[in-house]
Specification:
The structure holds three protein chains of three kinds. In chain A, 76% of the residues lie in helices and 3% in strands. Chain A is built from twelve helices and two strands; from the N terminus they run H-H-H-H-E-E-H-H-H-H-H-H-H-H. Chain A has helices at 2-32, 39-55, 60-82, 91-113, 137-158, 160-170, 172-177, 182-208, 216-229, 233-255, 257-274, 279-282, and strands at residues 126-129, 132-135. In chain A, strands 1-2 form a two-stranded antiparallel ribbon. In chain A, helix 1 (2-32) packs antiparallel against helix 8, helix 1 packs across helix 10 and helix 2 (39-55) crosses helix 8. The longest helix of chain A has 31 residues, at 2-32. The two termini of chain A are 37 Å apart. Chain C is mainly alpha-helical. Chain C has two domains: 3-313, no CATH class; 314-348. Chain C is 74% helix and 1% strand. Chain C has helices at residues 3-6, 9-28, 31-57, 65-82, 86-109, 114-133, 171-194, 196-206, 208-213, 218-244, 254-267, 273-290, 297-311, 316-332, 335-347; strands at residues 141-142, 145-146. Chain C has a two-stranded antiparallel sheet. Classes of the chains: A mainly alpha, B alpha/beta, C mainly alpha. The A-C interface holds A 29, 33-35, 37, 83, 86-87, 91-93, 95-97, 99-108, 110-111, 216, 219-220, 223-224, 227, 258, 261-262, 265, 268-270, 272-274, 276 and C 60, 62, 106-107, 109-112, 114-116, 118-120, 122-124, 126-127, 130-131, 134, 254-255, 258, 261, 265, 294-310, 313. Chain C: InterPro entries: ABC_transp_permease, LivM-like. Chain C: It is a multi-pass membrane protein.
Chain lengths: 288, 243, 348
């Protein structure tokens, strides 16, 4: 019984993990149809924000919930202005440019902080379920993922900005024709997507520690989740994270973490063979 | 009409997008060697119908049969390989290469290189664009690109030619040449032309199918269609009066 | 047709330079430089593999290193087990080709394009990298070969003359053999591109819809192009493995894929000379920069990549061609030349 509970909890944590990892990327992809290849390094930047600010005596929760999103969000806006906006309409070029940015960031951060892992203490400690020890922090992750999705949903559904965003997602040309300044929408989108990514990176830092090359460990999972999900931010992310999270976690239980990723990829390939535009490209088309 | 003489038939062809029915239960027959024009106001479902024929869309319901073979929802290249030549609404050409190369790629599909070369030259000649052979297609005018695309369709030696708005963006001279070409091609193949350039239609049309709201509204000779009050009301109204 | 290759002076220039370097370099240069050159040759083959599928098939693979690494590991495992290198070299071409066809089937029959294609290819390479990194334990062995995880596989046999496992090639001979492989692949690709198959690929790159409207099976065509590219990259990987006599997961890393992209971008997409030139130029630059400790090589690679996309999207070779053409036009328009022409006309 306890064991089942622990496994169920691990499943949910794996799904929450994928949601956190990929929400920021999904926002950018849903709105702009580009994948930010420097996504992993944006996560890394969120992690480093926590390390540096707690090192200077900032409360860790403030660092994670407030500072990291702000810092990475601002960074995202700068990147959008300097790089992305020059490449609108050239999707593949924007992928290449963000990949270049990714390497520049890895190299740059290595030059400044060195290539070693900096640990971050996991807050809250553990708790026991029957005979098993579970970190309380898992619940923070699950809660954060749910809260994040709810906030994105509420913003899209009930605010004017959300309405503009939904219009742009449905038909960018039309919304431009209606006088919506798409360029500003894209800038804001990239900023918000980056902020969400920074937040996720901050939350992940205590679990993984931070190191300049940490991004590479997460991008496979987040890229796959986003493109399998398709263009709808919430439904897509949730559906893909749910499906792929359970598959990879199930595989991890059976054979260890290495094949978890491989199973994730294989499942995604089969899915994309059947639904080339992702899950929400065919089903749940009208969803958010 | 017995199906035996029909090169192309659709039965109960229906295409729905979400709640919108763009093509509604269409039974369409085309005899071998026939030249048929499809008319109708914008949004009448002509282009959607066309795309169901070419395999670019898979119809929600109903069947498409070409030369006795069902091709409903088949892949475009398979339909083409059965002997259908297709020209889409937006010019679809290979922009980065020469007009000659464009047409040759079509001719080469069925013939070995030496024969393909001859066929390419002949087709370019036939379409009156021999002087453009070496020019990069991306740099040509819209009308010239249309002619290049038509040459590509003809070089495939199709049994059935489907043309979606071939006269769009053409000058008067180019349009005249196009009309001549379409009439000429109709001697060796069945042709379906979707068009709403009336000047062009008058040059080529004999038997006409009028679409309205996704369904066949009228099928008659062009002279009768021009006189038809109801057709005028739904579509030709202003233009017919003006003429 | 193939005539277009035979008539192209650039083709003879490239092959001529290749042959000259192949025969003269070992005589003129010291051993260290020769080995340095060998490295450029191997990586040029890798660059060609991406240059072909991207420039002449319109397939932008973000994970070309997956094939490079697969070829390298195939060669390593096979040659350690067999003790010979001839068949492993062939296997290093065939297995990545098959893998490319299988992956291509999923991608192109699923009609993935643009972003999706880029992401899938990248992720495949990434997961391959992760898997290999985790094979450090002794339980991960294939026959006599231990995969070694992040430690890599050491003591990979040097190439020998086919049939005679004792006749190892010395570095100069190895250089010449690799140079020959590079030249052969270059020639083969030039002819493939000029063939009907190649022209259809170019047509697909230009306009997929039109290609299928002419009756060509776009999906199959792309799978074949992608598989050929995979095979060539695999061969490059095998050359890399035997040249270094060592292979580790770095050969599958994102950095390796990125390097190939940067070489092709720098040299110019849509040419075959470009990727080779881009590869040699940038590898030489990396070597020079490598001696400066302060600058991180990954940061430099990233910066070059961004600059190329933003400032020189066409690449060096096409840009140089364009400049040369403009220069030629300007030259022709010189006023006194016009005057000369006019005079000539008058005299007639």
């Amino acid at each position: 019984m306890d064991y089942t509970l622990v496994i169920a909890l691990e499943m949910v944590r794996a799904i929450a993990w994928l949601v956190l990892l990929s929400s920021g990327l999904a926002i950018i992809f849903g709105m702009m149809r580009i994948i930010n290849f420097a996504h992993g390094e944006f996560l890394m930047l969120g992690g480093y924000t926590v390390v540096i600010s707690t090192g200077h005596g900032v409360n860790e929760w403030v660092a994670m919930l407030v500072l990291a999103p702000i810092v990475v969000g601002i960074f995202g806006v700068i990147v959008e202005r300097l790089v992305i906006q020059r490449l609108y309409g050239r999707i593949l070029d924007s992928l290449l440019a963000t990949w270049g940015l990714s390497m520049l960031m890895i190299g740059g951060v290595t030059m400044i902080f060195g290539n070693s892992v900096t640990g971050v203490a996991t807050p809250l400690g553990g708790m026991s379920i029957g005979a098993y020890q579970v970190p309380r922090y898992n619940f923070v992750l699950i809660f954060a993922a749910i809260a994040l999705l709810l906030i994105i949903w509420a913003v899209l559904k009930f605010t004017k900005a959300g309405l503009i965003a939904r219009a742009t997602m449905q038909n960018p040309d039309m919304s431009e024709a209606l006088g919506i300044p798409t360029r500003w929408v894209y800038m804001a989108t990239f900023g918000i997507g980056s902020a969400v990514t920074g937040f996720a990176g901050a939350l992940l830092a205590p679990m993984t520690g931070v190191v300049p090359t940490m991004g590479v460990n997460f991008i496979a999972q987040s890229f796959i989740t986003v493109i399998t999900g398709g263009a709808s931010i919430i439904t897509g992310t949730l559906a893909a994270a749910g499906l792929l999270g359970s598959i990879s976690q199930g595989m991890t239980f059976l054979t260890g973490p290495v094949y978890g990723d491989a199973a994730l990829l294989l499942a995604a390939l089969v899915l994309l063979r059947l639904l080339p535009q992702g899950i929400t490209g065919r089903i749940f088309k009208k969803s958010l | 009409m017995s199906d035996d003489y029909n090169i192309l038939t659709t039965r109960g062809l229906t295409m729905q997008f979400g709640g919108v029915t763009a093509v509604d239960n269409v039974d369409f027959n085309l005899r071998e060697g026939e030249l048929r024009c499809l008319l109708g106001p914008n949004g009448a479902g002509k282009s959607t119908f066309f795309k169901c024929l070419t395999g670019q869309l898979t119809p929600t319901k109903g069947t498409v049969t070409f030369a006795g073979q069902e091709i409903t929802g088949a892949l475009t290249h398979k339909i083409v390989n059965l002997g259908v030549g297709i020209k889409t609404q937006v010019p679809n050409v290979f922009d980065g290469v020469s007009a000659y190369e464009n047409v040759r790629l079509s001719a080469r599909r069925k013939h070995l290189a030496p024969l393909a070369r001859e066929l390419t030259h002949a087709t370019l000649e036939r379409c009156g664009i021999t002087h453009l052979a070496k020019r990069e297609v991306g740099l040509l005018s819209h009308g010239q690109r249309q002619l290049v695309e038509l040459a590509m369709v003809l070089a495939g030696e199709p049994k059935l030619i489907l043309l979606d708005e071939p006269a769009a963006g053409m000058t008067g001279d180019e349009r005249d040449r196009l009309a001549q070409l379409v009439l000429e091609s109709a001697r060796s193949a069945a042709v379906v032309v979707v068009e709403h350039d009336m000047a062009f239609i008058r040059q080529i049309a004999k038997f006409v199918t009028v679409f309205n709201r996704g369904a066949i509204f009228r099928e008659a000779m062009i002279e009768d269609i021009m006189q038809d009050r109801e057709v005028q009301e739904i579509y030709l109204g202003k233009q017919a009066n003006a003429a | 047709m193939e005539k277009s290759v035979i008539r192209d002076p650039g083709f003879y220039v490239m092959v001529g330079i290749g042959l000259a370097v192949m025969f003269i370099a070992p005589v003129m240069l010291d051993l260290f430089t020769i080995m340095q050159f060998t490295q450029y040759v191997v990586l040029s083959v890798f660059a060609l593999s991406l240059g072909y599928i991207w420039g002449f098939g319109g397939i932008l693979s973000f994970g070309q290193a997956a094939f490079f690494g697969l070829g390298a590991y195939t060669f390593a495992v096979a040659s350690i087990n067999m003790g010979s290198t001839t068949i492993p070299m062939v296997l290093a071409f065939i297995i990545p080709t098959i893998f490319g066809a299988a992956l291509g089937y999923f991608m192109f029959y699923g009609r993935l394009s643009d972003v999706y294609l880029g992401v899938v290819t990248l992720v495949v390479a990434l997961i391959f990298w992760k898997l290999i990194n985790h094979t450090a334990g002794p339980e991960y062995s294939i026959g006599k070969a231990r995969l070694g995880g992040f430690n890599g596989i050491p003591s990979i046999p040097t190439l020998h003359i086919p049939g005679d496992t004792g006749a190892w090639l010395d570095p100069a001979q190895m250089f010449q053999v690799f140079m020959a492989i590079l030249i052969i692949i270059y020639i083969a690709l030039r002819f493939l591109i000029a063939s009907d198959f190649g022209r259809v690929s170019i047509g697909i790159r230009e306009n997929e819809t039109r290609a299928s409207l002419l009756g060509y099976d776009v999906r199959l065509q792309k799978v074949i192009v992608f598989a050929i590219g995979g095979g060539i990259a695999g061969l490059a990987g095998a050359m890399w493995a035997t040249y270094q006599s060592f292979i580790d997961p770095n050969s599958v890393s994102m950095e390796m894929s990125a390097k190939a992209l940067v070489w092709v971008m720098a040299g110019g997409v849509g040419t075959l000379a470009g990727p080779i030139i881009g590869c040699i130029l940038l590898q030489w630059l990396t070597l020079k920069l490598g001696t400066v400790d302060v600058v991180n090589s990954i940061a430099v690679l990233g910066a070059i990549m961004m600059v190329l996309v933003l400032a020189l999207p066409k690449g060096i070779v096409p840009t140089a061609k364009m400049l040369a053409m403009n220069g030629w036009t300007l030259w022709n328009r010189r006023p006194n030349r016009d005057a000369v022409t006019r005079k000539a006309v008058k005299h007639e």
